[in-house]
Amino acid sequence: MQPALAAVPVSTPPPNLHNPIIYRPASISSPGTPPFAPADIWKAYNYLPLYSKGIKGNGTRIAIIDAYGDPSLSSDMSRFNSLTNLPSTSINIYYPDGVPKQGDTNWALETALDTEWAHAIAPAATIDLVIGLDNSLQHLYNAIQYVVNNLPQETTLSMSWGDYESNYPSTGSYTIANTHQLFLAITGHGTAVFASSGDQGAVGCCFIQYPASDPLVIGVGGTSLHLDANASYSNEQAWSGSTAGSSIIFPKPAWQQALGDAGSRDSVDVSYDGDPNTGVLVVQGGLEYRVGGTSVGAPQWAGLIALASQANSQTYAAINAKLYTLTSYHDILTGSDGYFSSGSGWDYPTGLGTPDAYATVSALSPGIPLNINETETFQGVNVTTSANLNIAQSTGKLSGTALVLARNSTTGAVLLNKTYTLTSLQLQNRAGILYGAFLFTIPATNYPLSSDVRVTDNSGTASATVTVTRSLDVNGDGIVNIIDLAFVASLYGSALNTSNYDGRADADANGTINILDLAYVAAFFDAPDYI
Length: 531
Description:
Layout: E1 8-9, E2 22-23, H1 38-44, H2 48-52, E3 61-67, H3 73-84, E4 91-94, H4 105-121, E5 126-132, H5 137-150, E6 156-159, E7 161-164, H6 176-188, E8 192-196, E9 209-210, E10 217-227, E11 233-238, E12 245-251, E13 264-267, E14 270-273, E15 280-284, E16 287-291, H7 297-312, H8 320-323, E17 329-330, E18 354-355, H9 357-363, E19 368-378, E20 381-391, E21 397-408, E22 414-426, E23 428-430, E24 433-442, E25 449-458, E26 461-470, H10 482-490, H11 515-523, E27 529-530
Helix pairs in contact: 3-4, 4-7, 5-6, 7-9, 10-11
């Protein structure tokens, strides 16, 4: 059978549609087996840590533009939610040019797919579904214009349709130039815009779909996703139907420099499972289908950025440039769309890759800055600890760099001048306050010292304290643990100049190994030591 578009091409005059790629599911009860249920995708793309923190899209809005609509959407959503253990959601439906007088089975399935899977990824988000009277350029343009004029509060916008750039008129009302102006207005509202790249693969360099090719839009390509029997991520390849290439309209944006074509905007930007053979569950007309196409990815990426918006208390608008700075992707190394092949880093069929959702939301966090600049004197050593740190609001992870400068307090001689790097150190949640501790080793005296740092984040206000002691990581294995605590405890009560005194256990160097030394080690128990 001729695979047709789930990312349905618009046409003038309407309709002249291919049939979407549809397969009846054999089963939805086996984890990791297509059609993938939301629980499979949640695990594969690492959404579960976000949901465990209550990040489900609360307070966000996802706009979806489709044509004709799904006349059974209410019952389809109820059935989908029942099958997949999802909560109900708020869906508002708008008809800018009136309620369609006729239906279309292809677009009904498309509408169900887009709505069900935006909800699956952001279960608490409000969905605003804008339905064009038909799939003509005029009525889909009017639907985009409706978002501009009437839905300025949308967090994200998903469009699972398009047509080759060369098929758009060069004059008149519905040109690419005019549509681009609408996207300028939408992103100006703070809305991030996503579009499926198309499902016909590539036969040359320059046959890509608009609106995915617009530099204000994130173009979403497709992969073949494979999971194990536990629905854990196994591997991915580029899907043969992932339409990609270089624009004949738009020049190269700054964030794509040194990638792809030297002078043109390249699509795809990111990707998602899209192969119909590894498709997702969709309920439409009371029936269950396995559906593929790059349409699968556009609403889910819109849902993911809605999660980021909730988690990080901000909107993302024209997010393309930011996405190109992230490393939170599954890099797709193999597969082809018939003309372009995947490889390391960005490539045409899969763009930057598919998301690690938790890492992506964390990377998009503006973070809570924490700057440290403290000097402590200990046993004739002046220790200055300077740090520029950042706490990711959504994940509670601490990252940044610290400089430790140790000098002889008498001569001023430099004993240590070292930069330490902290990468994604997970802070612990204690009754709503995030807490973390870590050490910087100072191997500059008879007994190694350490700059001991404690960090707290109380409702977005971060602070730190710095203490210098003899190294609390007594055995130097990189962490303060039970071995260090036991060592100090075994020497408890011993004093300087006695036979069993060991200065390594005398954290505060006061000449006696006592409760204070045990307290220091206990306070930093499980703290990593940056050696």
